[in-house]
Design goal:
Length: about 100
């Protein structure tokens, strides 16, 4: 009797794991497709990033109060160049976003 219960538990666990494996495989394929689709844009961005010089960065840092969008793009460029980003004060964030690229 105990062996049958254990066997039932094992079969149930095996079925759950098979479902999870299938879901993970589907998610992996989806992520892989998104990665392939994004790769050309990443290569273009890397190419454009190579055209940014230290002079450009120094020039941008000389602005006393650049707009939020300029700060955001500048931070992204610094991150891509593996350079340090200075944390901004929470008050520097806008209360409304001019253009929401995620919607």
């Amino acid at each position: 009797m105990k062996a049958e219960i254990k066997k039932g538990d094992v079969v149930q666990a095996k079925n759950v794991l098979a479902e999870q494996t299938q879901m993970i495989q589907h998610e992996r394929e989806s992520c892989q497709n998104e990665l392939v689709a994004a790769e050309p844009a990443v290569k273009d961005a890397e190419k454009a990033l190579q055209s940014v010089s230290n002079k450009d960065i120094i020039s941008l840092r000389s602005y006393k109060n650049p707009s939020y969008v300029v700060k955001l793009v500048f931070d992204a460029v610094l991150l891509l160049m593996n350079r340090p980003v200075r944390p901004g004060a929470p008050s520097s964030l806008p209360t409304t976003v001019v253009c929401n690229a995620w919607s």
